[in-house]
Amino acid sequence: MNPFIEACIRANEEIASALEKGFDTSWYEKTEVGAGGDVSSKLDLFAEQIFFKYLSSFGHIESEESGIMGEGDVKIIIDPIDGSSNALSFFPYYGTSVARVNADGLLDAAVVCNLANGDLFVKSGKDDVLQGRLFSAEFHPGHVSSASEIGLFEKAYAHPLLVAALDKLGFKFRAPGAIALSLAYAHTVEYVLFVGPFRIYDFAAGLALCEGLEVIVEADYVIVSKRKNVADKIEQLVKDLREE
């Protein structure tokens, strides 16, 4: 692991250790609308401070919460807590995402962590995605399922017509509520679907982990699948409903 990836892992381990001790009551407090357009909680800002401590020496940080922090030619895009509503509800599907864009504008490192169970996904340069766990030095190629039965549909609650259309075609799904994490698990599910405005904080790291998959990115939807025919069918559904 290079020093940047190591620093990302150490930051995640410090956040996970703090959560393990119990949620501070102040973390539930809402503050103000962050750079990503959502109201930040103090849990988001707590995690952001830890990432700044570990990563600011590598370049400037663009955070979903506080926007641009620090300086440097290298850009580090972070979502300090991916799925913070889940975290604050003790629903065990929340994590963090970090992507590094080098001085030439190329994304050359990505780390997504599931803080609820310790799953860690790492992409460095042209190397294949590796999967491991927090507080462990062992990594292996990312898990792949050839018998996936479900997809992941983020923000499904806002799209009832699309939910009905997917059900009619027999596309089962779950809607867990943390898009970077869902993209990290894209190799093990049938598909990942997000419908809504594209924000770089949500997707930079997660999409870097989807190498080798069918990936469709538009301004208002993202579709990822192991199978092209599945991605194409879902995209057609999205387009058809848009025209109605």
UniProtKB/TrEMBL annotation:
Cofactor: Mg(2+)
Record's keyword annotation contains Magnesium: yes
Protein name: Inositol monophosphatase
Domain of life, per lineage: Bacteria
InterPro entries the record matches: Inositol_monophosphatase-like
Keywords tagged on the record: Magnesium, Metal-binding
Pfam families: Inositol_P
Keyword Magnesium annotated: yes
An example Gene Ontology molecular-function term: metal ion binding
Chain sites annotated for binding Mg(2+): E64, D79, I81, D82, D202
